[in-house]
Design goal:
five-stranded mixed β-sheet, 2 domains, alpha/beta
């Protein structure tokens, strides 16, 4: 059996030893419970690890990841994570983070068949359909893909704002804020999109639930 996977075990030892050297009680404190400040809904791409790219320690971010950071109103996994984050952990900020160079975005823009994943890509193809007129005006293919990354994030922020239990929290106050970000693989920097929302004022009336 190839043993290359054991580098992860060795890496873990080095990680734990380094943390203990800096803060001997860190893991003991961490084991008592979690109090993350943020919920991160991001892409499963291995190049976009939330804690690493934001420079925060373990315990800071509650995380859900899937192909192309999609928020689907029938996804029990995502909704369970979000529900626990806002109702139990009381996170104040939710971040939907896409990234330039996303394979899921590229696949959804094409007419190729990818097998089982095609059903999931339908959600992103709907974003293409919603914004088809704008995307068709972008001649450069890479610029068009980058724009779809951004539009997809904006749409997913809106989808999360339409979730009833999120709106229940807004009835109580200003939190949680939902933010849309894009990570640039080439620069390592995060770009904030102008789509932050913390109330139902920016969504269609039909999705503003009478609570």
């Amino acid at each position: 059996m190839p043993r290359s996977y054991l580098e992860l075990i060795e890496g873990n030892r080095e990680f734990a030893d380094a943390i203990r050297k800096e803060d001997p009680g860190f893991f003991e404190n961490l084991a008592t419970g979690q109090q993350p400040k943020y919920l991160w809904i991001g892409c499963a791409d291995s190049r976009v690890p939330p804690a690493n790219i934001t420079g925060v320690p373990p315990g800071s971010i509650f995380v859900h990841r899937n192909i192309a950071n999609v928020v689907v109103h029938t996804d029990a996994n995502l909704l369970s994570v979000a529900y626990y984050a806002v109702k139990v952990l009381k996170v104040k900020h939710i971040i939907v983070c896409g990234h330039y160079g996303c394979g899921g975005i590229q696949a959804a823009m094409s007419n190729k068949r990818y097998g089982y994943i095609d059903g999931w890509l339908r959600h992103i193809k709907d974003v293409v359909r919603f914004h088809e007129s704008e995307l068709k005006l972008i001649v450069d293919e890479q610029a068009r893909l980058d724009r779809l990354v951004e539009l997809n994030v904006v749409e997913q922020v809106g989808n999360l704002a339409k979730v009833p239990f999120i709106q229940e929290e807004w009835e109580k106050g200003e939190f949680p804020y939902i933010h849309g970000w894009v990570y640039d693989l080439k620069s390592g920097k995060i770009r904030q999109l102008d789509c932050t929302i913390n109330n139902t004022g920016l969504i269609e009336d039909v999705f503003d639930y009478d609570l």
